[in-house]
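[job 0412] stage=complex_fold ligand=guanosine-5'-diphosphate status=START
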Amino acid sequence: SLSDRLGGVFDRLRGRGALTEADVRGAMREVRVALLEADVALPVAREFVDKVTEQAVGQNVLRSVTPGQQVVKIVNDALVEMLGSDNVGLDIDVTPPAVIMLVGLQGSGKTTTTAKLAKLLKGRERKKVMMASLDVNRPAAQEQLAVLGTQTEVATLPIVAGQQPVDIARRALQAAKLQGFDVLMLDTAGRLHVDQALMDEMKAVADIATPNEILLVVDALTGQDAVNVAKNFSEQVPLTGVILTRMDGDARGGAALSMRAVTGKPIKFAGMGEKLDAIEPFHPGRVAGRILGMGDVVSLVEKAAQSIEAEDAERMAAKLAKGQFDMNDLRAQLAQMRRMGGLGALAGMIPGMKKAQAAMASGAVDEKILLRMDAMIGSMTPKERAKPELINAKRKIRVAKGSGTTVQDVNKLLKMHLEMSTAMKRIKKMGGLKGMMAMLG
Ligand code: GDP
Ligand code: MG
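[job 0412] stage=complex_fold status=DONE, emitting structure tokens
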């Protein structure tokens, strides 16, 4: 796996300080091979590797993971971010009918996906959906959609022989308006390869129908060719998103990265089979794992994340050993508590925090309170954060106003900070956190 190969590259590095450019470049050669093996298009792989190299150089090597594992974590995080860390749904909250148009090469799965999405919107979102096929090129294409309509119990526009796509689109729009449909889905004709006559037809339909979504449907097995497809389509029509089909096959996921890079649009769904409910929201994390070719990437990444927490805590402990604990430190602690559900690395060690931790565990303090504290600290000036004793009555009013809280809330926060920094000073007297932990056994 990639992590084994990176292990080899990094064997020499164990125990050294920061990731150097030479080390990272060596590792990135392996990453590049992994990306290409996963079918990421060459220019996209190259750009990605350059970007991640820049991020990785100079990062400190965590003591508890190998440099190879750490690079995998950096690469994984960058992949997830680039694939889109949050899932983006369909933009259909508009004055009805919302129009969704599907475009793509022939055989990419447009017609099947049209029916899958219609079924999803009808079932889960209780939308009244109509489908219309504008495919007058392939014989029986319109009948194919009608059959899918019967299977999914979704209305389809009646077929009128001899009509051209633009006229069908116009008729569909009118029918959807008159009959009160929420969503109109337009399934378009495919292309074997990008062909200007069909592109022009697609543009004309888009002009008439002014779709809320124009989704490019791409076969995930397209591999290296995905870039050309994406480029051509996104130059011709204003795409709003991408759907990758055949993710149930042996696709290695690389097309996802290529599509995202070339179109700049989110991947909204993944087709997972021929059945009409085989469609899922796109999961960047899973696809990143597939691209890196490792089943164990998740646990690896978790392990690295834990060590980062641990080293953060150590860095904090070093500050504390000097008896320093300002609002910035408190804010970092609050953020950690939020991430870890109250179990911040330091939380259990510090008397003031222990109370807060217990309160959180018992449900007496919820995330909202932590967020409110964060807002208050956010409303302080940098000077106030470094020296909270500056915060007088007038400043308290300003902070409360700025964070949508009350002066009472601000007082509570200041009291908590004071208790904690007093505890810190006590800890310092006992020989720092190390000394305290040694005492505890
Ligand atoms: P179109 O030409 O773009 O309209 O493509 P179709 O919707 O007619 O699909 C072509 C073929 O791909 C059909 O046999 C579909 O059943 C199949 N297909 C579509 N989506 C998927 C998918 O997500 N997974 C698998 N395994 N097959 C799919
Ligand atoms: Mg079709």
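The first helix runs from residue 2 to 10.
[job 0412] exit 0
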